[in-house]
Amino acid sequence: MASKTxxxxxxxxxxxxxxxxDELVNILTPVVTAAMLAWQxxxxxxxxxxxxxxxxxxxxxxxxxxxxxxGEDRTFVLPCTPSTLPPDIVGYANPIYAIDPEAEEKGIPYxxxxxxxxxxxxxxxxxxxxxxxxxxxxxxxxHAMHNISKFHRPLYVANANWLTPTPRNEALRDRFAFTIWYxxxxxxxDALVAKPAIQTWKFDxxxxxxIQQIKVWMNEYITRPGDYQCNQVIISLLKQxxxxxxxxxxxxxxxxxxQLRSMLYTMGCYHAQANDFDQIPRQAYDALQYAYxxxxxxxxxxxxxxxxxxxxxxxxxxxxxRANAYQMWQEMFSQHADRNGVISQAKRDELNRHLAPTxxxxxxxxxTEFPDDPRVENCLAEMFSTYREMLMGRNPLK
Length: 398
Description:
Blueprint: E1 9-11, E2 14-16, H1 22-38, E3 41-45, H2 52-64, E4 75-79, H3 86-90, E5 92-93, E6 111-112, E7 124-128, H4 135-144, E8 155-160, H5 170-174, E9 176-181, H6 189-193, H7 208-223, H8 230-245, H9 254-272, H10 282-288, H11 297-336, H12 345-369, H13 374-391
Parallel strand pairs: 3-8, 3-9, 4-7, 7-8
Antiparallel strand pairs: 1-2, 5-6
Helix pairs in contact: 1-9, 1-10, 7-9, 8-9, 9-10, 11-12, 11-13, 12-13
């Protein structure tokens, strides 16, 4: 999948445009991947007409549709309207029980969920125009989507044209681990006209089998996270984000931490193809940018800046630190080498006496500035390899 790029680039009076819904696919792919792996719900909000419903539906069909599951279609679309009632969401009591006292003995099911998102056959439910739902349906949906719901809980992916924050729908908003506020760029008519139907597209998403494997790993991980090296990686990143969030409108509650932990662990496993890892993949950061129930585009932009500032600050600082250290070591090597770049044994011992204190200082400074950050360990491992080469009289920096 192509990396996400800026939607509009101005150069003089010329604008470069990206076709919709390609742009939306680039944003959605890492988020829906994370949602499928961690089994966390997604809400996508934008103006009408940019392919929200079609893309979300096509993504679900690819992974949970008949083409992927031996002819079985485990997807469902729930149109959310003011007239949507609780039985439309969670089913209803079988009326046969009112007239047949032997209904239970006959094995007739008491609760009918066929044709609802909580039917045990459903794995992926699109909530179409989720914010149009009325109070009765909305309150029922809140309970159906809860982790401790007595009903079967599919993966919910919702779309909406607007969001009106109210105390009543706050719980519903909080049921979505990922909330994407999408502002489309200028439409590229040429590209759109030449595009095939969205339902025929193939997306860069995990397979059903991969999702099932990650679920097994996740269940093992949450019972004994202390046994995993990735646990410290996840804790370090979340603590950094939490520190940046202090004094802002963004809060970490218990559910948020558990959601983020699940997303980071499952995305790490998926890209490492193993049940443990020592660094978090870039795609996890792309998904993390939307992992907060933001109520408007402004708040969404602020959250994204917070996430990326944590990532960029560390990466930029490490790059600068490494470059400065290498420049110092290069100068030291040049001072002890002859005109052919060769260091005699006597000069090598002298070089080692100068290099050793710098390595010790560099190591201490990095670990003090970014304690327990796995990227620091990766950086130090690379630097130590260079340092060791220089101790042996070789210059890998030339």
